[in-house]
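Page 47, continued from p. 46.
Same chain as before, 296 aa.
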Amino acid sequence: MKSKSQRASSLIEVSDRLPDTTRIEYAQFLVPDVNSSLHFYRDLVGLTVTGSRGTTTALSASKDETPLVLLTEDRTAQPRPARSAGLFHLALLYPTRRDLAAAFMRLREHDWQLHGFADHGVSEALYTADGDGNGIELYIDRPREQWPTRNGELEMVTEPLDLENLLSELKGPLQPQAGNRLTIGHIHLQVTSLSSAEEFYHETLGFDVTQRSFPGALFVAAGGYHHHIGLNVWNSRGGSPSKDGTAGLVRFGLRLGSNDAVQSLALRLKTTPYWSQESDRGLLVHDADGIQIEIV
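Result:
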């Protein structure tokens, strides 16, 4: 007999899967002091301030790019409860190993605390947090043909990072990479139930599950990527949903790259219990834990 998850998955038609062009477009944070937050994202990460509207400041990969990070200042914002749903980390994807090495050097020169380093097989990553305690991963991808698999499933691992080898990239001549830029590679969320998260992100939105064998976590993606969204219950199993007015992640943007896909998803969401409504650019939806997503 099929499980509930297997029965629901079998109802997803190929047309209901997210397009291969799907990507994380931006993340918006509520912060108590925007000037303090800018030091991390502008001076250390390397983003450029591209404008502000009201209490929200936008940062992009360059002055000509769309925003990657939106910082909304609210000096009355309350800290997010540790066991509640929300952000685990935002993962910023650098175009080259040299760019990642340079980011590491900026962090070290400013005595910024690093929480760890890892070789995930599919990627090489540095872990830290912004000035407000939001988890941040800085990483680069390995070529897809090098990504490890086991029994037909992608196998992301956590091994020590060869930091000395990474930093050796700074010793060689600069090789310009036309068209490459800093992007948001993925977002990792802290959720209260993996089964509820899978029902929303896989069975409703249409992400493919790429790895479910990592204890307490689930990884989903579109277009064959290793993961656009990570989901875990390591600190939040059975915890409280996301609440408005708390510091940290307000929402993130998911760009599908297809108006037809957005419209199809909007119709599909109307048949589900999830809150959704149209927005100027597409639609807004809440996941099972109340985390808000703008789909454009």
